[in-house]
Structures are given as C-alpha cells and as structure tokens.
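Duplicate of #3305? Posting structure anyway:
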C-alpha cells in the first residue's frame, strides 16, 4: 500500500466521521418546541428545529456525517414534528371547546333576554344580581353603580329594547362565527344569530368573551356577554 492510498483512506475516514453542529442546534430547538404544547410562542422554534433536523438527514450522505449527527437530526425532526402536531391538536380542541361555550353563553343570553329574565341577563354580562347600593352615584365601581349601568343598557340599547319588546316568541338560530378579537381583558368571539321566530328574521351580533387569552390554560375561565347589536 503506497503513501497516496493511505492518504486517501485517511481522508475518507475523516470525512465519514464529520460532525454537524446544525444537528445539535436543531435538536435543542426541537426540545424547546415541546413547550409549544402549552405556549404558542415556542411554536416557531419547534418548527425551526424540525426543519434543521430534516436538513441534516437530507444532507447526511453529501457531507458524510457521523452516526451521532444523524441520530440527533432524526430526533430533532421527530420531536419537533410530534410537538408541533400535538400542540396544534390541543389548540384545535381548545378552539372547539371555546366555540361551544361561547355559543352556549350567547344562546342563554338571548333566550333570557327574550323571556325578560333579567336576573340571568345581569349575571351573563358579568353583573352579579345584588340589591341596590345607596351610594350608586358616588362610586362607579360599587355593585349598585354597576347594576345601574346594566339597567341603563337594557333600557336604552336599540338591540336590547327591540328584542325585549317583541311580541312574537323568539326562535334563535346560530348562523356563524363572524370574528375574533383580543381585548384588554380576555378574548372575544363575535357570533351571528338569527331570530327565525319572526316573519322577516332579523340577525344580531353577540360578543361572548372569556377572561383570558385564547390559548391560556387556566383551571377556571369566566365567560361574559360584552354586547349585542343588529347585524349588518
């Protein structure tokens, strides 16, 4: 065996055992991506980790990466994809659950409003039904003052007055989800309902809000009705 052959074999051995830093970084990113199951902010990191893992596997032969790099690349791709898929699945379940709860709150609010059941209406807009406080005008944060605001809204808001004074019994039908909004306090869904109990069925938008962000995980979430208006 001459010196040239030995040199070539040495280079092949060296090339076959080359190490990929991309595999390590991708594996680390995919581990961070596991938190995307609970936190939406880490989802892009998990996606990047899985892409880096896929890149390592696709280029492993070209760059003659060693077995450890290939294993890390495979783990980065697998962990990243599994975490992303599970996180998206969890969010879809959460969204479906939120939609059901928003519809339930909206339907109960509309039914109570049509029946002029004000106790339920006050409760669903976040106003606990309590006796009037004698200092309702002195402090806007007192229960009595809040109740006054609720009563004024029911007495003056066009959509509320229209529904409460209607003689024909209402028959509420959910039509669609027309929008979602992140507010200063919580997350709101704008739902469209139609009163099929009327000769010319009118449509309304009702805003159902939960007191946390869309993907927040909390033991107890409170739902309220923010407002009601005639749909355009």
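Output from current build:
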């Amino acid at each position: 065996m001459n010196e040239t052959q030995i040199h070539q074999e040495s280079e092949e051995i060296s090339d076959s055992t080359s190490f990929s830093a991309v595999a390590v970084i991708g594996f680390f990113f995919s581990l961070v991506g596991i938190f995307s199951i609970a936190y939406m902010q880490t989802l892009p990191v998990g996606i990047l980790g899985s892409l880096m893992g896929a890149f390592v596997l696709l280029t492993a032969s070209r760059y003659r990466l060693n077995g450890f790099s290939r294993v890390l690349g495979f783990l980065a791709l697998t962990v990243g994809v599994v975490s992303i898929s599970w996180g998206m699945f969890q969010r879809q379940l959460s969204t479906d659950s939120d939609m059901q709860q928003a519809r339930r709150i909206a339907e109960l609010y509309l039914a109570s409003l049509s029946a002029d059941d004000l106790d339920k209406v006050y409760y669903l807009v976040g106003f606990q039904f309590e006796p009037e406080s004698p200092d309702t005008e002195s402090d806007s944060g007192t229960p009595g003052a809040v109740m006054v605001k609720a009563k004024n809204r029911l007495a003056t808001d066009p959509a509320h007055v229209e529904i409460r004074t209607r003689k024909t019994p209402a028959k509420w039908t959910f039509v669609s989800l027309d929008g979602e909004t992140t507010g200063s306090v919580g997350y709101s869904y704008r739902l469209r309902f139609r009163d099929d109990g009327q000769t010319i069925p009118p449509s309304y938008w009702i805003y159902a809000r939960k007191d946390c962000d869309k993907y927040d995980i909390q033991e107890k979430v409170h739902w309220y009705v923010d407002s009601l208006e005639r749909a355009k």
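Confirmed duplicate; merging threads. The radius of gyration is 30 Å. The beta strands are 172-182, 187-195, 203-210, 223-230.
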